[in-house]
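Working notes for the structural subgroup meeting. M.R. asked for a predicted model of this chain before we commit to crystallization trials. I am recording the input and output together here so anyone reviewing the notebook later can reproduce the run.

Input as submitted:
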Amino acid sequence: MINNKISEIIKARKSIFPSQFNGKEIDKETIMELLKNANTAPSHKLTQPWFFKVFSRSSKTRLAKELIKQNTKKEDKLLLKFQKSSHIICICMRRDKTKSIPEWEEIAATAMAVQNIWLSCVDSKIGGYWSTPKGIEKLNKFLNLKKNEKCLGLFYVGIYELIKKRKLTRKNIETETEWFD
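Returned structure, recorded in token form:
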């Protein structure tokens, strides 16, 4: 039988958008704990393809300006997201040098690392949201990424107060599952 506490944590995971953050800063130790939890994600052959570049304080502004160069249409909205966020975590992936692992598996492993960050925020006033803004692929030079590395998006982290509960309707997994005996 599955541990009920784990099921509750998984079901309580939610996206908290940067517009819902209060702009207060999260201490570095807490961010590091989120990243340590991310680092426990599974990966094929233990390649652990994920790595992170964390921006806070004035470095968030430099990152925002770089993104604005790529996508000037949403400048005000992007700046507000960055201002209200405590930290912006660039979610990066490094391909296995031998390419013995399919790329999709390394992307999936990186996504599992991000899920661990999200789950770590449950039962705290820390919220998170993963977004892939337009022009993200043009950040490679700014982020000093190598040829076999890429940024898969930004994870906005911030402190929030009370959030109105939204009733989300998930698809019925019983009708989406086919059993074979």
